[in-house]
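User: I'm putting together a small comparison set for a docking exercise, and I want a reference complex before I start. The sequence is below, and the ligand is iron/sulfur cluster. Could you produce the 3D structure with the ligand included, as structure tokens?
Assistant: Of course. I'll restate your input first, then give the structure tokens for the complex.
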Amino acid sequence: MTDRPGTSTYPSGEGEPLLSVRDLTVTFGRGAKAFRAVDAVSFDVRPGQTVGLVGESGCGKSVTSLAIMRLLPSRGNAVTGSVHFDGEDLLTLSDTQMRDRRGRDVAMIFQDPLSSLNPVVPLGVQVAEVLERHRGMNRGDAGRRAAELLDKVGIPDPTRRLKEYPHQLSGGMRQRALIAMALACEPRLLIADEPTTALDVTIQAQILALLKELVQESGTSLIMITHDLGVVAGLCDEVNVLYGGRIVERARRHDLFARPRHPYTGGLLASIPRLTEGKGRRLTPVPGSVADNIPWEGGCAFAPRCSSEIEVCRERTPELVPDHEGLGPDRLLRCHNPLESNPLDDAPSDEEVRA
Amino acid sequence: MTTTVQQPEGAGTPEADVLLDVRGLKVHFPIKKGVIFDRTIGHVYAVDGIDLQIRRGETYGLVGESGCGKSTLGRAILQLESPTAGEVVFDGTDLASLKGEQLRRQRRHMQMVFQDPLGSLDPRQTVEQLLLEGMRAHGLTKDAQVARTRLTELLSAVGLPKNALSKYPHEFSGGQRQRVGIARALSVDPQLIVADEPVSALDVSVQAQVINLLEDLQEEFGLTYLVIAHDLAVVRHISDRIGVMYLGGLVEEAEGEDLYDEPLHPYTRALLSAVPVPDPVVEDSREQILLPGDLPSPANPPSGCRFHTRCPWRQPTRCEEERPELRVVQVDGVPASHRVACHWAEQIASGELGRHTVEVDDVTHPDEIHPEIDSSLGAKGVTDASA
Ligand SMILES: Nc1ncnc2c1ncn2[C@@H]1O[C@H](COP(=O)(O)OP(=O)(O)OP(=O)(O)O)[C@@H](O)[C@H]1O
Ligand SMILES: Nc1ncnc2c1ncn2[C@@H]1O[C@H](COP(=O)(O)OP(=O)(O)OP(=O)(O)O)[C@@H](O)[C@H]1O
Ligand code: SF4
Ligand code: SF4
Ligand SMILES: [Mg+2]
Ligand SMILES: [Mg+2]
């Protein structure tokens, strides 16, 4: 495999990987109906590092994280590959061992906080239970610590809030409460699956600032799953772009945005309207939709939508291989005909369009 | 393509050709309690006093956070919600004065495009049936040949293949379904289209297709748009003028460029600073104005300036007592078309008044929360009542 970044020094996140995902594959159904939602995905997360998984709906972001957490339904799917956490393969642990790890070592925050909170149990009890279960605290200590945690994530008047039920909290508060629960056991790895997608921008800004601060303060590693390139741009040290269940491009944050190499990444960046740009620039959409994908076997799934397509694209599956050193270290790319320039550079400017 | 061709000049001048004129519009929903006798125990002040003019051929963008009343305003404009007070004048006609058949006929000129194309399209109807239904209701199908031609034109206008006619909504991708929704709105040849979050349910790679389509159709058919969206970049891209809503009221209104270049209202400033930008260089250097707390409940809006509970510029006088009106401000370089509802806009713009920290506590009191209305506060899209 070519996945292992060699002797790299990360601005944050150094040393041996804390999490090492190799050839993770998740297949739903079997026989002729078998469908690979995640296809040989490999990546590392180092201590203190924030790694992004970005891609559009259905590309396999959530299934990847659920597979890592062993939270996929027990039937109807097959998971292969390995997920080494601190040297131990999570996929081979017993259910009890895994349950113990979840919450203590690895925690997860979901998009919809309401569905991850128990509606009939007061918030304080829910947070305290995590502490009692994983840290062996007694009721009293757990209660006090729970209040501290709520305070830390910016929930005002935490002692009163502890007595409340999830429906009495706003969406932003609920997400804060979930973050508090996830952090209760000081996990070494936090997986956040679209943690702000359901929130308003001003609330999203609060939550992202909170996550950033917590990660920096405690050295927690973070896997950030999102479809929002803006969130990636501000938060992730390294970004993996997923398409059709496979990683198609990997780069460090600045490198990726400065020089997208995969036509899909370039297409996404060219298609989003910019806050800093007035009315006028014609957007360049990625044509078609994921419904047009062809199977990865024997070709590139993105070919029907790709403006850089060449003949070989429908004949041979592109492999994920190291990209030009000159465009930034540790870049990986899966493409037969990568972009040679940033598509945004030759997008006509406002003036040109009007002229 | 330039979309600037048809834009009316002289923003803010009363002579400009106003298609939609909203005056003092209020929509208050009663909060009921009781098993046998419904007692009204309060109101949700969803839309609470809005004045708004949209000129023929322009795109007016409406932004604001979840629950601030954007959809309710859009629905009230189309008379899908009956206003508690105020009037909606469309093309010179006060819609409240229209009854039954007259109102139905007027509706043809005002159509809506929804966020969730699947939820708003009848799953048992083919695209052909969906399109013909609206046309039939307005007597546009009398000549079968003409109707056929119209269907083909509609499909090609929204970029769907011909064979789409015999398909059902679930057979399309999200972007294609939104095209069907747009074709249906267009089928009766309207003047105004109210698009409520038209791209927020779509994948990033597909959003641009629909945005471009909306722009092309505007040019081709001379449409007027009211676009409701929470994505500020989308709104800036598509709008000539933009209104920012907070808790049932407009807090700022300006031409797109003016609003983004020099936001005057503290809320607009915070909102713009909060949007994550897909550019690491910008992200690393930008200064965010983080607002404390959540949106207060629209059932119990704060006194005076509704933003005062979260405003980093709040002053000891006026803010808590007087509700600021949308007004033209005396700031160099700010045109009369740029209006803002803040008592201290001039002093804030000049820098005379600085930002300070806000105590977060008690932005929302639990006893003021009505779970049935407020369970989605702060979560977007959930309050959407798509018809
Ligand atoms: N339990 C399941 N059974 C069958 N297919 C599934 C199941 N869960 C997910 N899938 C499929 O796997 C693919 C990947 O889904 P996943 O939820 O990981 O997407 P995602 O990238 O998280 O998308 P989104 O942005 O919409 O959350 C999708 O095509 C989805 O339909
Ligand atoms: N039929 C109704 N009865 C009672 N309250 C309602 C009704 N419709 C909307 N509301 C309330 O009115 C307020 C404004 O809702 P509206 O849907 O207009 O907000 P919005 O700005 O469109 O939000 P979103 O961005 O979430 O779509 C909310 O508090 C909502 O709960
Ligand atoms: S492999 Fe070919 S089709 Fe696939 S992204 Fe690269 S150029 Fe496009
Ligand atoms: S009126 Fe006062 S509280 Fe309202 S926005 Fe202006 S400064 Fe802030
Ligand atoms: Mg997902
Ligand atoms: Mg709405």
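The first strand of chain B starts at residue 18 and ends at 33. The pocket of magnesium ion (ligand 6) is lined by residues B 70-71, 196, 384 (CB under 6 Å).
User: Thanks, that's exactly what I needed.
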